[in-house]
Amino acid sequence: MKIDLAAIRTTRKEIEVSFPLGSIDASSDAEIVANVEFRGSVWRDHRGPHISGHFATKVKLECVRCLAVIEKAIEGDFDDLFAEEEQTTPGELELTPELMDVSFAGDSVELAEVLREQILLEVPEQIFCRDDCRGLCPKCGQDRNLIDCNCSADIDPRWAALEDLN
Ligand SMILES: [Zn+2]
Ligand SMILES: [Zn+2]
Fold first, then answer.
1. Ligand 1 centroid, distance to 129 Cα (angstroms)
2. Which end of the chain offers a freer environment for a tag, N or C, measured as fewer CB atoms within 10 Å?
3. Where are the domains of the chain?
4. Which is it for strands 108-110 and 2-4: parallel, antiparallel or unpaired?
5. pTM metric for this prediction
6. How far is the CA of 153 from the centre of ligand 1 (A)?
């Protein structure tokens, strides 16, 4: 959904849109696995045009300890300002006819792209499937949440010595 920045007025225009699954590709680290719902508005103040609102979706992530796949709900609020060229003090800028045309005509942003960036900001860098995830065994690679592989006993000789006392 393209938004024509030049057409944005001071009066808020409400936007409600649902991007179907697959239409926004977040990144290789966080796959979006639900519709991206957006509810917000476009408006303008003395600084320039804004796109603001609330989004919600779900992403698929891997537990950093055991690599289990987790679906996590992601949502957030944002207010993006698209600063205009003409903030340069008049006089410093040579207002040739060509420059005036370039300054704004036809400038638009893709709402899906704005949301993609916002989603990435909300995706946690590290996620655990649960707080006490035991992770993969560094020796045999098995998931210690599922299996007690008993490798840990011979990892640290000090512990091995203690076990001999029993
Ligand atoms: Zn885990
Ligand atoms: Zn093991």
1. 4
2. C
3. 2-133, 134-166
4. antiparallel
5. 0.73
6. 21
